[in-house]
Amino acid sequence: MRLERRIVVQLAIFVVVALVAGSVMLFGYFKAPVTWFGVGQYKVTLQLPQAGGLYKTGNVTYRGTEVGRVEEIRLTDAGVEAVLSLRSDVQIPSDLQAQVHSVSAVGEQYVALIPRNATSPPLKNGDVIPMSNSQVPPDINTLLNAANLGLQAIPRENLKTVIDESYTAVGGLGPEISRLVKGSTQLAIDARANLNSLTTLIDQSSPVLDSQGETSEAIGGWAAHLATITGQLQNRDPSVAGLLEKGGPAAEQARQLVDRLQPALPILLANLVSVNAVAIAYQPAIEQLLVLLPAGTADLQGTAVPNMNTKQAYRGLYLDFNLNLNVPAPCSTGFLPIQQQRVPIFQDAPDRVDGDLYCRIPQDSPFTAVRGAKNYPCLTVPGKRAPTVKMCESDAQYVPLNDGNNWKGDPNATLSGQDVPQLPPGTPPASNKLPGQPPPGAPLPIAAVQYDPATGSYIGPDGHVYTQTDLAQSAPKERTWQTMLMPPGG
Fold first, then answer.
1. Closest CA to 69 of 89, 95, 43
2. Three-state SS for 114?
3. What number of helices (H) and strands (E) belong to the chain?
4. Both ends of the chain: CA-CA distance in Å?
5. pTM of the predicted model, to two decimals?
6. Which of 49, 41, 94 is nearest to 70 (CA)?
7. What residue spans of 154-204 are helical by DSSP H?
8. Most confident of 144-153, 158-167, 378-387
9. C-beta separation of 330 from 447 below 8 A
């Protein structure tokens, strides 16, 4: 029989398609090389206490991916052994746990390989997963029996109520419960990934918990105070509500007030910045003043107590004035010499001399100018005392002119080499010069005035001639304390 060329071509195409389809079926679906010859596979034995419904050709998964099948299940003296045929191209850590799970409630068990870490050596052909690292699901009959006993223990009339209330409680909450389960799972995964940190936190939490226990009284007091505050807020609920309702309009009124105070208020606030800096620097002094002011006020009020309920026409302060002359003695050290001092009757206002004029005797002098400028405390340098802020903030230390005993000689101690007035540290010599002041470097004249002992006449700093009769030789020799207090010629 002779076939036409067209039929021969069709038969050839059919044979090729059949061969391709058969190859796909044989190698792709049936996986003949793997099934018949074990190509690309290795075998691992899994020891189980019982089969747990596992069957031959069941799936084996690793991290949710199918990596092999159950090749054989056989009984042993200790339980059951399942031979797993696994893919060679998947590296599975040997430190793992094998669990038998069900795909659905009706069965279809499979083996899930769950690694404990990713650093252990991979499984190899012939390895055995011991029974200590395997787990099978509980017997379904036991579970059903336990569930049946539990349901029988619940009164039937209450079971419907429980089911209805449960439906009411969780009905429609599927997405929320799903998110809760996913979040809990992710939390567990993160906790395992940070297991060392969590262990350290638990181990080191004891001191924190101990401190909480030791401060339980303080915490209880804080809670009690908070309860008092919240109770007061509850009792004053109308007032709080009124504050919340009227707070906005009040704030708007305050804003309008600030707008009306333009531009004076910004200038005032800008000036307060410098005042604030000074107040911060002098905070200890301000606090001391606030501490002493009430006590001083109380002492001042106490001076009026003896005059209360008396018949005196004038009810003033009850004070005792004692006339103490030159106690303590006046300090002239550190001030201008007498030739350069101005007469009090002058009414002009000359420029102030450069430098500082103050009592420059030792700081520990117990009788003269105890509270003078030399003992000002340095607020920015605790423990240091100096007459000026510049000296406080510099490395310079206070040096007195002399020991304060003016009668020994020059009250300004010109031999000490220090300037009078005193210039701040790092300041060039003073350019101003008072009338009668010697040139720089020359010793200052001593604090004395030439007078005529015969008549008691002398020339004052203003150039006028004055007479002190009690200095004359003709003055009466007998002198009393009254004559010392009387002016000349009195």
1. 43
2. strand
3. 13, 11
4. 177
5. 0.36
6. 41
7. 156-170, 174-193, 195-203
8. 378-387
9. no
